[in-house]
Design brief:
This protein is an alpha/beta fold. 40% of the residues lie in helices and 14% in strands. Helix 1 (18-28) packs across helix 7. The chain starts with 8 loop residues before the first strand and ends with a helix.
Length: 327
């Protein structure tokens, strides 16, 4: 969809990850994105020697404005007059103090799409509390679904709520743009990162309401040896997602163990599970990697973030993207 948003101007008044990620996704679709930063720059410029900033602000024009000064505010208002979208990630109330809140801005640009992206939204008991990604995962119920064998929540090394919030924000902005083109109306979007993560748990809510499970779909919750994570001979890991009978049978064929056909629904910790786990330890991670490319049994290695670039799937996708951008 390269160029789909050509002619759309976005003001990206955001810091760190979720807001800049939102703006970068819109820029990838062809929007003209102007990143408005304070005189000293987005604080993310100081993280990793500027790597966090670099990772989320490609294809943007960056301007530095002191929004607390008369001159900076005047320049900002000039930018707003020609903008279609404004995204901001200040704490609730800050934009109002600056005289740049939605109610003020829409009198200047009636059809503006104004997106406020924050941790806990713009109203409610938590709006003025500091928070970060780990808090949103915890509060939403998402972190409770990521536990190790002893029941302890696993500490993610990625900011999952930040990125999913950026995805949802770009989705909502696109929907608002469609409505704007049809009706001429602008929109105000109040997106809370904690709420975004909770939107990924409808299965859990449905199963809990029926009294069946507090951890979503049982078949994929770690209770079957056919859908599990296994350690390899060299201490790495692979995933098996053979939920359907045909894939489990294909795996049994790979193992040369047709007597395993009836074991798919056996639970971890059973003798059957121990036998399958022992089989995975007979091969190295590289051997399982090679088998995952040729055997149709829902087998995939656990790759590091850097290793994924060498995998045929990501390598081919990157090549196709580069080719499309060249045209």
């Amino acid at each position: 969809m390269k160029g789909a948003l050509t002619g759309i101007r976005v003001l990206d008044v955001t810091y760190y990850v979720p807001g800049p990620f939102t703006g970068m996704r819109l820029a990838r679709l062809g929007a003209e994105v102007i990143k408005v930063e304070p005189p000293n720059g987005d604080p993310s410029r100081g993280m990793g020697g500027g790597l966090v900033h670099q990772a989320h602000n490609a294809n943007k024009q960056i301007v530095h404005l002191d929004l607390k000064s008369e001159g900076g505010k005047r320049e900002m208002l000039d930018l707003i007059r020609s903008a279609d979208v404004l995204v901001e990630t200040f704490r609730p109330g800050v934009m109002k103090k600056l005289g740049l809140d939605y109610e003020t801005v829409k009198h200047l640009k009636q059809d503006i799409i104004y997106c406020s992206l924050s941790g806990y939204g713009q109203t409610g008991e938590l709006v003025h509390l500091g928070s970060h990604d780990l808090n949103y995962l915890a509060l939403s119920g998402a972190l409770d679904q990521l536990k190790c064998e002893d029941g302890r929540p696993v500490h993610p090394t990625n900011t999952l709520a930040d990125y999913t919030g950026g995805l949802l924000a770009s989705e909502q902005i696109l929907a608002a743009l469609i409505r704007k083109f049809r009706s001429g109306e602008g929109a105000y979007l109040d997106i809370a990162l904690a709420e975004v993560m909770a939107e990924f748990l409808p299965n859990h809510d449905a199963y809990h309401a029926r009294g069946l499970s507090d951890h979503g779909v049982p078949e994929i919750g770690g209770g079957r040896i056919s859908y599990a994570i296994y350690e390899t001979k060299d201490g790495r890991y692979v995933t098996l997602g053979a939920l359907e009978e045909k894939f489990w049978h294909n795996f049994c064929s790979l193992a040369g163990r047709f007597d395993w056909h009836a074991w798919a629904e056996y639970a971890p910790g059973t003798p059957e599970h121990k036998e399958v786990a022992a089989f995975f330890k007979t091969k190295s991670w590289q051997e399982w990697y090679a088998l995952s490319l040729t055997h149709d049994c829902c087998l995939a290695p656990v790759l590091s973030a850097s290793e994924r670039h060498a995998h045929p799937f990501f390598r081919d996708r990157a090549a196709k993207l580069k080719e499309s951008e060249a045209h």
